[in-house]
Amino acid sequence: MTMNFQDSAASRRGLLAGGGKLVLSAAALSVLGGNVALAKGKKGASAQDTAILNVALGLEHEAIGAYQLGAESGLLSKDVLAVAVAFQSHHKAHRDALTSTIRQLGGTPVATKTNGEYAEALGAAGLRSQADVLALAARLEKGAANAYLGVIPSFGDQGLAQVAGRLAADEAMHWTALVSALGQALPGEALSFGA
């Protein structure tokens, strides 16, 4: 069964939906910084947090796959390709941090899919122009930003909620750049994300 983007975005919001602190908790800092011994001595992170992080990891795998498909499509100009590769590198950093955190919390990170599976799920066969690739990336970035914002209240460890906020900010930055590259207007209303 082929999943279109709208189905994928709706299911992500549903899986992630359930005010972080301004400072990361000691547990979150320890986990994301690689200090497992200190992290294990802190309370807050739960099995639910690990499950949420795994869904987030799935989003990052999908974004990496989507940017790979765009890069290999031959549809992107040299300058746009450079930005796509930079955005993909952000998603790889997100992936690596999430994978490490999930493992350090005792969970098993969700596996990535093949590029063929991402191509089918994202409708890559329908990409005919640079604008098509950018529009797909913009939809995915907005969906990821909304998913990260939606999950913030669900974390038991408020430090992990802060991390989700930072990830949402990256996704919103990517979306803004992509929409601008497409020549589309930015939202005229406030609070355009997280709804």
Summarize the helices and strands and which ones pair or pack.
Blueprint: H1 5-16, H2 26-33, H3 36-40, H4 47-72, H5 78-104, H6 115-122, H7 130-151, H8 158-181
Helix pairs in contact: 1-7, 2-8, 4-5, 4-6, 4-7, 7-8
General description of the model:
Helices cover 68% and strands 0% of the residues. The chain has one domain: Ferritin, core subunit, four-helix bundle (Ferritin, Up-down Bundle), CATH 1.20.1260. The chain is built from eight helices and no strands. With 195 residues, the protein is an all-alpha fold. It has helices at 5-16, 26-33, 36-40, 47-72, 78-104, 115-122, 130-151, 158-181. The protein is globular, with a radius of gyration of 17 Å. Helix 2 (26-33) crosses helix 8.
In a nutshell, what does this entry contain?
With 195 residues, the chain is an all-alpha fold.
Oligomeric nature of the chains: single chain
Low-confidence regions:
1-42
What count of helical segments does DSSP give? 8
Estimate what percentage of residues fall within beta strands.
Answer: under 5%
Helical fraction equals: 55-70%
**Cα radius of gyration in angstroms:** 17 Å
CATH class: Mainly Alpha
Spatial gap, N to C terminus? 28 Å
Features:
195 residues, mainly alpha, Ferritin
